[in-house]
Design a protein that fits this description.
The chain is an alpha/beta fold. It has one domain: Phosphatidylinositol (PI) phosphodiesterase (TIM Barrel). The chain is 30% helix and 15% strand. The protein contains three helices and four strands. The chain has helices spanning 2-10, 51-59, 72-81, and strands at 17-20, 41-44, 63-66, 85-86. Strands 1-2-3-4 form a four-stranded parallel beta sheet, covered by helices on one side. β2 (41-44), α2 (51-59) and β3 (63-66) form a beta-alpha-beta unit. The protein is globular.
Length: 93
């Protein structure tokens, strides 16, 4: 959070995102107020994302950018759920 605070103090123009792994799934529920820094996007590991996670992100007015999705079927599923972007090692699939 110190890094996000630093970026926010440096410039209000920089858009911030919260990287969320399977070790920090509770961060999907955070909006940043507890740490004194707001972020505009959530970047969760794709296995943490379902329709409810998308709904909560939309309620918080946050973008949802998932990582790292290499399975074509999972990419389609996430696109149908309405994620804003997908990070992949295999963009051809």
């Amino acid at each position: 959070m110190d890094t996000l605070r630093w970026f926010r103090e440096e410039s209000r123009q920089i858009r911030l995102g919260m990287l969320i792994s399977r070790y920090t799934p509770h961060m999907l529920l955070e909006d940043g107020r507890r740490w004194g820094v707001r972020h505009e996007a959530l970047h969760p590991e794709h296995t943490l994302v379902d329709a409810e996670a998308i709904r909560r992100a939309r309620q918080q007015r946050k973008k949802m950018v998932v990582w790292t999705v290499n399975d074509a079927e999972r990419k389609r599923e996430l696109a149908q759920l309405g994620v804003d972007a997908i990070i992949t090692d295999d963009p051809v699939r």
